[in-house]
Design goal:
With 191 residues, the chain is mostly helical. The chain contains 6 helices and no strands.
Length: 191
């Protein structure tokens, strides 16, 4: 029997497993991994400040890295482990593995930083993550008999929309506008 078939839910309404469920420790592990990861993100911000690399810190960066550890604490404290939010946590852990792999490679091999072509796609992956979280929350809210915290679901829904908009703004300023500016400069130089 596989792990998923033992879980007492389906993807449209992921309820929390009972405390005595044989797989409850997996929910605990995933919840704590997500929660601890938020503190590593916060440490990342602290190290940026200590290095005085202020240009790396944006409103998005600050909001996300200050908001998420606090939110993670309250979710675990008042909601418990797993359930509906496991989708968000697993997606976010995956995105962070990809993102921190890029940071590690670029910090250990500085010449490679210019040749790592997938940096831009990390931001797109983050945006896709928020679209999936947004859609998953909409779908869950549409289930009339789903017994999960509606308040928490709305909170995650609005957070995913806000984060998507902030990442879209970042993506536009970091990748789209510079390409347009470069293209315009080439055209002026060519004429």
């Amino acid at each position: 029997m596989d792990w998923y078939s033992l879980r007492p839910h389906n993807l449209s309404c992921i309820t929390m497993m009972p405390q005595d469920h044989p797989l409850k420790n997996i929910d605990r592990l995933l919840s704590y991994a997500y929660y601890i990861n938020k503190y590593f993100d916060l440490l990342d911000t602290i190290f940026i400040v200590l290095r005085k690399s202020y240009k790396q810190i944006s409103g998005l960066h600050l909001l996300h890295h200050l908001y998420m550890p606090i939110t993670g604490y309250y979710v675990i404290r008042f909601n418990g482990y797993g359930g509906h939010l496991i989708v968000m946590g697993v997606l976010n852990l995956f995105v962070h593995v990809v993102m921190y792999s890029y940071y590690y490679i670029s910090s250990q091999i500085p010449p490679a930083k210019r040749r790592i072509w997938w940096k831009e796609y990390i931001t797109l992956l983050q945006m896709l993550q928020f679209v999936i979280i947004f859609a998953h929350n909409i779908w869950t809210l549409m289930q009339p008999r789903c017994e999960i915290s509606r308040v928490l679901t709305y909170m995650v829904f609005f957070m995913s929309v806000a984060m998507f908009l902030m990442f879209t703004n970042f993506y536009t300023h970091a990748y789209i506008l510079p390409k347009k500016k470069k293209k315009k400069q080439k055209k002026v130089a060519h004429d």
